[in-house]
Please model this.
Amino acid sequence: MNVMKNKLPVLIAFAVAFNCCNNRPEKDIGEKADSANDAHYDDNMKRDIAPVDDKSADFLVNAVNESMFETQLAKLAKEKATTSKVNDYAGMILSDHGILYDQLKAISSGLHVVLPSSPDEAVQKKLQLLNKHTGKEFDKGFLNMMIRDHKKTIQLFEHASRNVNNAEVKTLIDNALPQLNKHLDSARVLEKMYR
Model:
């Protein structure tokens, strides 16, 4: 029993000394890591929040812009289209691009990519211009915009598919392209009604 009493202070002192040596001291803001342990700690933190490659980040921002534009166009068409076929097409765009937008947002959030919250000014002007039309002129203008914009979106996705480094982004692109081509083909068929 006396042996344990004599060793207890030594064990406590050893535990305190061991704990002090292994704890990472708090640093002042702006102080750089000056030991191997600090550098290792900082490298691990950087790895946890490493930014996505620039090409993937640029694609995500541009794809969200395009998706927002097509969604806004489709919402307008749901209000103003004169034929059920154009109205149905607008509904398909709203549904499909809503899903795509959610997927783009989810991936962007996981990769810490900041996305625009609303379409840019150029998009707003296009929407205002289209909104001035009514009847068949509106339908024709809507379909023309859908054709032009889907061509642009498909080019964006195809280019990114060849150039992005992030596997999750590439998978999203490859899964979305057939649907985007379907949207383009459908708009072309509908647009023939107005020639």
Remarks:
- The mean pLDDT is 80.
